[in-house]
Amino acid sequence: MVVTSPLKGQSHSHSFTKFLPYALYALLPIALFRLYFHPFPFPQSTTDQLSHNSRIILTTSSSSSSSPPLSFSKEEEIANETPCDYANGGWVHDKMGPLYNGTTCGTIKDGQNCISHGRPDLGYLYWRWQPSQCKLPRFDPNTFFHLLSNKHIAFVGDSMARNQLESLLCMLATASYPNLVYKDGVDTKFRRWHFASYNITISVYWSPFLVRGVEKSKTGPDHNELFVDTVDARWGADLDHIDMIVLSTGHWFLHPAVYYEGGSILGCHYCPGLNHTEIGFYGVMRKAIKTALETIIERKGANGNGIDVLLTTFSPSHFEGEWDQAGACPKTKPYKEGEKMLEGMDADMRAIEVEEMETAKVNAKQFGGLRLEMLDVTKLSLMRPDGHPGPYMYPFPFANEVQERVQNDCVHWCLPGPIDTWNQILLEVIRRWSIQSRREE
Ligand SMILES: *[C@@H]1O[C@H](CO)[C@@H](O)[C@H](O)[C@H]1NC(C)=O
Ligand SMILES: *[C@@H]1O[C@H](CO)[C@@H](O)[C@H](O)[C@H]1NC(C)=O
Ligand SMILES: *[C@@H]1O[C@H](CO)[C@@H](O)[C@H](O)[C@H]1NC(C)=O
């Protein structure tokens, strides 16, 4: 097979080698991806309930807002030790279990509310992530409120961004209930909550490519169209009012797409009917992340306002069998340390994100007030094949009789579930930043 590199002159010489697997992924059944990566194919009753309830339920305790997040000696300890590598470690049994359940929080998307959908095994809830060199503290909502008061935090990206946001809201709701203050029509692609007692705004922006994209539709093109040199206007327009941005992207780049750059066609991925060069998706995803990070740095650096930027790394899926048969992701326990290696597409996607973040950190140094960090969750997520909804993306899928064919979601994460750990790490990054900046004052 002759592959013409469309990325000639690109600074990342190794990206060419990353091309090779594209042919493999082009062979995966495209219908499957349509199913799993379509953002909101299900009824949104939970959201509707929230909009009714949320205005009445308010935090009752204002004293919690004044509780100090950490003692001085603990701060010293954190500031002096080398930053913990949260990315590597193992899952260990934990009797404590999750902070919340499917009834304590109105924001869990139905398809991820596994307990309420009748998932019978609950062992997957009793594990905590143990990094190799340090301890990851349990999530403390009041620390979050204390550190982020008067701030606007935006989750921007695909359905993994939404999954992570909903986990965060559920954990925060155990201490103070969020008011849903904005919702985009019947959809839940764009939502915003406000924690009145702390003046914290948390929002979610649907932006699966981070850059401008036209999603395939019944009336439009039957593939996605991506403009890799322009950020998605929806979140781009709000950037001036965002203090912390959490980016998440990846899975949508596997879809068939035509790519544009500088007004001309760059190439495509899986577009057999069209006369464009197949270029895979790795190089394009790299460009999209680069565009997003560069835009954030230039805009927020130039106006001197600063911003905190986190990039959540690729979240592996765990399909073992046919997606429409029982047992597509049947495991009920995490992998043990060393049992599952990070490799193939999961490793490649993560590597691109890590490299682009490193480049962005260097670029950001010319400005003050910009803090950038990875949320490197790929490995810890890879080790949780038991954490997906599987057939419980639908309520009681086996209620009538054992069905031969049932859809499985082995991509998103049950709430509560392993994805709560992502936000534990998020909070630790924020805590470290806060301590460092106070010491620099
Ligand atoms: C969920 O949590 C709430 C509050 O802690 C508790 O009252 C309730 O019994 C729990 N529900 C289930 C099903 O465990
Ligand atoms: C509330 O937070 C927003 C940022 O989300 C900030 O612009 C505003 O000044 C804050 N309001 C008060 C009263 O501090
Ligand atoms: C496809 O593109 C090539 C190179 O640009 C061109 O020579 C050829 O005529 C095109 N074929 C069709 C069917 O458009």
Automatic annotation (TrEMBL):
UniProt KW Transmembrane keyword: yes
Domain Trichome birefringence-like C-terminal: residue ranges: 136-428
InterPro entries reported in the protein's UniProt record: TBL, TBL_C, TBL_N
Pfam family name, one: PMR5N
Entry GO CC: Golgi apparatus; membrane
Keyword Hydrolase among record annotations: no
Location (main, coarse): membrane
UniProt keyword terms in alphabetical order: Membrane, Signal-anchor, Transmembrane, Transmembrane helix
Membrane topology designation: Single-pass membrane protein
Domain Trichome birefringence-like N-terminal, first and last residues per copy: 83-135
The protein's name in its UniProt record: Protein ALTERED XYLOGLUCAN 4-like
UniProt lineage: Eukaryota, Viridiplantae, Streptophyta, Embryophyta, Tracheophyta
